[in-house]
Amino acid sequence: MLLYQVIISIFILISIFSLTFTLSLMDCLYDLIFLITVDKRYHTPEGAWDSEQHVTQGTKILIDSIKEIKAKFPQWTQEQCFKGGISAYNAGVKNVRTYERMDVGTTGGDYSNDVVARAQWYKSKGY
């Protein structure tokens, strides 16, 4: 259950990050209404944007990305695979070539690092 909660938290943070590039609290609050984003270019969104069906679809996409990264890089730690999965969620598994440069080609060029930093910030605030 803890892994599922972590994955949901990461997915929500990915969604928030994909909608805003500033640290402005107002921007973050505005973007919270878009809890889950499924990229229409690569997937057919299921259910309404705020439905359990949509959240489940997005979670499955993230889990699949993490599993594909684990298969591609079996020597990576679980934490590295999570981070690689976050990067792959944004730019595709093929884009992840090395741990050090996994974010080349992602949104902002630092996607997984930004998501992890935001997750740490939210955790430090008690979320």
UniProtKB/TrEMBL annotation:
It catalyses: Hydrolysis of (1->4)-beta-linkages between N-acetylmuramic acid and N-acetyl-D-glucosamine residues in a peptidoglycan and between N-acetyl-D-glucosamine residues in chitodextrins. GO terms for molecular function: lysozyme activity. SUPFAM superfamilies: Lysozyme-like. It comes from the Eukaryota. It is an enzyme of class 3 (hydrolase). GO terms for biological process: defense response to Gram-positive bacterium; killing of cells of another organism; peptidoglycan catabolic process. The keyword Transmembrane helix applies. InterPro entries: Glyco_hydro_23 (IPR002152), Lysozyme-like_dom_sf (IPR023346). The chain crosses the membrane at residues 6-26. Keywords: Antimicrobial, Bacteriolytic enzyme, Glycosidase, Hydrolase, Membrane, Transmembrane, Transmembrane helix. One of its GO terms (cellular component) is extracellular region. Its EC number is 3.2.1.17. PANTHER family: LYSOZYME G FAMILY MEMBER, LYSOZYME G-RELATED. Belongs to the glycosyl hydrolase 23 family. This is Lysozyme g. It comes from Anabarilius grahami. The lineage of its organism: Eukaryota, Metazoa, Chordata, Craniata, Vertebrata.
